[in-house]
Structure formats: structure tokens, C-alpha cells
Design a protein that fits this description.
By secondary structure, the protein is mostly helical. It has one domain. Helix content is about 85%, strand content about 0%. It is built from 2 helices and no strands. The chain is rod-shaped, with a radius of gyration of 26 Å.
Length: about 60
């Protein structure tokens, strides 16, 4: 029984550390996704403005 409790004693802190790392990874991923959503909203707004301009009046870079 001491072998089992000894093994559990060393595994539990490692498991706790892994869980914390996974939590931090998910938290960072959430921030990244939120950032991408905001970026896409900005891009959509810019594209909507460009769509209102007649093609012959567009800057050459915008036409690309």
C-alpha cells in the first residue's frame, strides 16, 4: 500500500501542474480567438466601405 500512496504522492502534483498548464493554454487560446474576431470585424468594416466606392475610383492597391 505504501508503494501506491508513494506513487500517488508524486503523481498528484504533476497532474495538478498539467491541469494548470492546460487551463492557461485554453485561456490564451480564448484571448487569441477574441483578437481574431475583432480583427475580422475591422476587416469587414473596411471591405464594406471599399464596396461602396465605384471600381474606377479605387486605388490600385485596393483593386488587388
Amino acid at each position: 500500500m505504501q508503494v501506491v500512496t508513494g506513487a500517488m504522492g508524486s503523481l498528484l502534483p504533476k497532474l495538478g501542474q498539467l491541469l494548470m498548464e492546460e487551463y492557461n493554454l485554453q485561456k490564451n487560446a480564448k484571448k487569441g480567438v477574441e483578437s481574431l474576431i475583432e480583427e475580422m470585424k475591422s476587416m469587414d468594416a473596411a471591405l464594406c466601405k471599399v464596396a461602396e466606392v465605384p471600381r474606377h475610383q479605387l486605388d490600385e492597391q485596393v483593386k488587388l
